[in-house]
């Protein structure tokens, strides 16, 4: 259900994480063009891209499971942990490399995704409380 606020926040998480995946793929291509043979891909950027895909998958599944709010809330908490790890990895990589513009852009997108995920969790929790209150009123 797209009209719920948490669905909009989860869509923001998905779009920000897909942009991070594209940025990390561009970083891998740039490393391959800068002198590292194409057989050897710089592993931390590949790891960041895979973590971004995992977080995107979790957010997509949480978006599709709108009928089970408790599961959606647990998936949001799991996604928050993955996003914090991913943000820490991106910040670490940005301090290790000279070309920081692409990684700082991914850090900004990850911060947006984390904030949107936290807002989605807040809306899911609020919705769950409203449902519990309405069940008590019956």
Summary keywords:
138 residues, single chain, mainly alpha, Four Helix Bundle (Hemerythrin (Met), subunit A)
Q: In a nutshell, what does this entry contain?
A:
This protein has helices at 5-33, 43-64, 69-96, 101-137. It is an all-alpha fold and 138 residues long. Helix 2 runs antiparallel to helix 3 (69-96) and helix 3 (69-96) packs antiparallel against helix 4 (101-137).
Description of the molecule:
By secondary structure, the chain is mainly α. It has one domain (5-137): Up-down Bundle (Four Helix Bundle (Hemerythrin (Met), subunit A)). It is built from four helices and no strands. The protein has helices spanning 5-33, 43-64, 69-96, 101-137. It is elongated and about 60 Å long.
SSE topology sketch:
Elements: H1 5-33, H2 43-64, H3 69-96, H4 101-137
Low-confidence stretches: none
CATH class type? Mainly Alpha
Number of helices: 4
- H-E string: HHHH
Taken from the alpha-carbon principal axes, the silhouette is elongated
The fraction of residues assigned to DSSP E strands is under 5%
Q: Characterize the biggest β-sheet.
A: none
Oligomer: single chain
Named at the architecture level, the CATH assignment is: Up-down Bundle
> What's the alpha carbon Rg, rounded to whole Å?
18 Å
Give the integer mean of the pLDDT values.
Answer: 80
Q: Please identify the structural class as seen in this structure.
A: mainly alpha
Total domain units? 1
- In the CATH hierarchy, the third-tier topology is known as Four Helix Bundle (Hemerythrin (Met), subunit A)
Helix content: over 70%
């Amino acid at each position: 259900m797209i009209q719920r606020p948490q669905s909009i926040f989860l869509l923001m998480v998905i779009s920000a994480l897909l942009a991070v995946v594209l940025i990390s793929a561009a970083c891998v291509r740039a490393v391959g063009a800068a002198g590292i043979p194409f057989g050897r891909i710089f592993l931390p950027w590949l790891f960041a891209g895979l973590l971004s895909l995992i977080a995107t998958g979790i957010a997509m599944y949480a978006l599709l499971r709108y009928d089970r709010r408790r599961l959606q809330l647990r998936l949001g908490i799991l996604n928050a942990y993955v996003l914090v790890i991913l943000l820490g990895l991106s910040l670490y990589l940005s301090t290790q490399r000279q070309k920081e513009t692409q990684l700082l852009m991914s850090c900004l997108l990850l911060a947006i995704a984390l904030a949107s995920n936290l807002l989605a969790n807040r809306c899911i929790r609020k919705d769950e409380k409203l449902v519990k209150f309405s069940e008590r009123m019956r």
